[in-house]
Write a structure and sequence with these properties.
The chain has five helices and two strands, in the order βαααααβ. The chain is mainly alpha-helical. It has one domain: lambda repressor-like DNA-binding domains (434 Repressor (Amino-terminal Domain), Orthogonal Bundle). The protein has a two-stranded antiparallel ribbon with strand order 1-2.
């Protein structure tokens, strides 16, 4: 998939655990895990806003586009 999720990288940079971030943004640890692994099909802007606020980052720090090789 050409969209890469770097949420785990940002969490490591900010030294925040999955449980702590899930609690801060109000989602379950299981749903946060789905986001971190890139298995989510979509993300709400409100959830992205909460993640960016909690981590002090921009959406582009979390999501990256890499085109497929042809």
């Amino acid at each position: 998939m050409p969209i890469i999720v770097n949420l785990d990288v940002m969490m490591a940079k900010r030294k925040i655990s999955s449980g702590e971030l899930a609690e801060k943004i109000g989602i379950s640890p299981a749903n946060l895990s789905i986001l971190k692994t890139g298995k989510a099909k979509a993300i709400r802007f409100s959830t992205m806003e909460k993640i960016c606020k909690a981590l002090g980052c921009q959406p582009g720090d979390i999501l990256e586009y890499k085109p497929d090789q042809e």
